[in-house]
Amino acid sequence: MWLFFHKLASPPYFYALAGRLIPWFGSICLLLTVVGLYLGFFVAPPDYQQGEAYRIIYVHAPSAWMSMFIYVVMAVCGAIVLIWRMKLAEVMAVASAPIGAGFTFLSLASGSLWGKPMWGAWWVWDARLTSQLILLFLYLGFMALYSAIEDRRIAARAASLLAVVGVINIPIIHFSVKWWNTLHQGPTVTRLDAPAIDLSMLIPLLLMFLAFKFYYATAVLIRARHELLLRERATAWVRKLLERAGA
Amino acid sequence: MLTIRSPSQWINPLVFFVLVVALFPLGLEPSPATLLQIGPGVIWVAALLATLLSLDAVFRSDYQDGSLEQLALSHHPLPLLCLAKMLAHWLTTGLPLVLAAPLLAQLMQLPPSALPVLVLGLLLGTPVLSLVGSIGVSLTVALPRGGMLLALLILPLYTPVLIFASRAVNQAAAGLPYAANLYLLGALLVVSLVLAPLAVAAGLRISLS
Fold first, then answer.
1. Is residue A197 within 8 angstroms of chain B, CB to CB?
2. Is residue B134 a contact partner of residue B82, using CB atoms and an 8 Å limit?
3. Quick check: ipTM above 0.90?
4. How far is A52 from chain B (nearest CA, A)?
């Protein structure tokens, strides 16, 4: 078990393993997306209140979940970077950030598309919307800090510290916004607390959630491989790899 | 001490603070009702920005003349030294803002009952701004143009302070109970007082490496 982790931390081993996993994860993601979207868009019944427009939930909710999940992954990798200075954790944290920002943006964009027919406005200062927006800025800050520092290892450590500080702050921000909002405008539109969601709608939602997870796994491994190659371009194993590819 | 000897360092943020607050009535209709409604928020946003602009002073000059490295090498614990630096920053920029607040409360037509809450909120909130902001400074101090980046890094982290503090003033002005918001500000202060020096020390070590 420990041996596996030690091997995982070595760049050449990770590079090869990720290369083998990517097609699997990718095809699982594709399969789940197709089945999930089919069930969600064609099989699940329309909502009795929101009609067909509710179907955006199959994109919206999983991306919102993923946006938070990825930030936590980033922060855990960041803590590993700060404590053990593991190269691979740096690579994973850095590779995760743009994907997480993408999911955050997707959840905001799909949410506003949903909000227009439901609430009559593209944007309301609802607690969840606001904290999601701040999460997007935290992602952008992480990426901006990483790209501003030239030395990649120092940059990764600085960004890791920021991610850890951010993860302490996320619950505080979340609750402050929540209380601010409830103090501010009384009852608001809350989703998902309508009578428990029907099974025929829940199954496609969970499928889509898994599909997004596998998408993240695929994308992060691809990005991590690239980042790894760039960083280790001077080492013997990359040179051997290139020679083999060239031959 | 050095900061007090060069008055521009502590007067400029203060003037900026007053100026930003004074701009809002010019841009809006200066009726007492409007001012009362936006006053607490405006004062607090101006305080955030004034702190943000003054934050560079915490470590920048020490970094440039190398004394920051000497601090990091000294046998005293670095988090403690950082805490002293942040305290000095608050005394020279945060405290003047607190003292200027009664004047601004008059400008924004806040009722006298809200004044103690505003001052107390600033007293609890501005140290948090200095502490949390220093984390951002410690990470960007080695960069040539860190200003814009600094804003991007720390303004999202400032949102809870802004929310609790301006809410407290609003509620006091409306005659509602406001204590919970001040307690939460106090909690934020305690948490950042404990954790921020550690984060700043770690950030400085990264920046200096």
1. no
2. yes
3. no
4. 36
User: What is the Cα–Cα distance from B13 to B19, expressed in whole angstroms?
Assistant: 10
Give the C-alpha separation, B129 to B126, whole Å. Answer: 5
In B, minimum Cα distance to A133 occurs at: B156
Please check whether the domain covering A19-238 is classified as CATH 1.10.10.
Answer: no
B-interface mutation test, from A81, A82, A165, A181, most B Cβ less than 10 A away: A165
Q: According to DSSP H, which parts of chain B are helical? A: 2-5, 7-27, 32-54, 60-64, 67-73, 78-89, 95-107, 115-140, 147-173, 179-208
Residue B87 CB partners (closer than 8 Å, separation 6+): none
Domain ranges of chain B: 2-208
**Across the interface, do B160 and A176 touch by the CB < 8 Å criterion?**
yes
Distance between CA A74 and CA A66 in Å, rounded?
A: 12
A residues 96..135 contacting B (CB < 8 A): 134
pLDDT, one tens digit per residue, over A203-238 is 888 888 888 888 888 988 899 888 888 888 888 888
Secondary structure letter of residue A47 according to DSSP: B
Instruction: Read off the pLDDT of residues B185-195 as tens digits, 9 standing for 90 and up.
Output: 888 899 888 88
Cβ–Cβ gap A134/B159 under 8 Å: yes
With tokens 């996993």, the residue in question is A21
Claim: this prediction has a pTM higher than 0.90: no
**Domain ranges for chain A:** 19-238
Distance CA A105, CA B23 (A): 33
Q: How far is residue A200's CA from residue B156's CA, in Å, rounded to a whole number?
A: 39
| DSSP type of residue A51 | B
Cα-based distances in Å from B33 to A178, B22, B28, B173: 27, 16, 12, 12
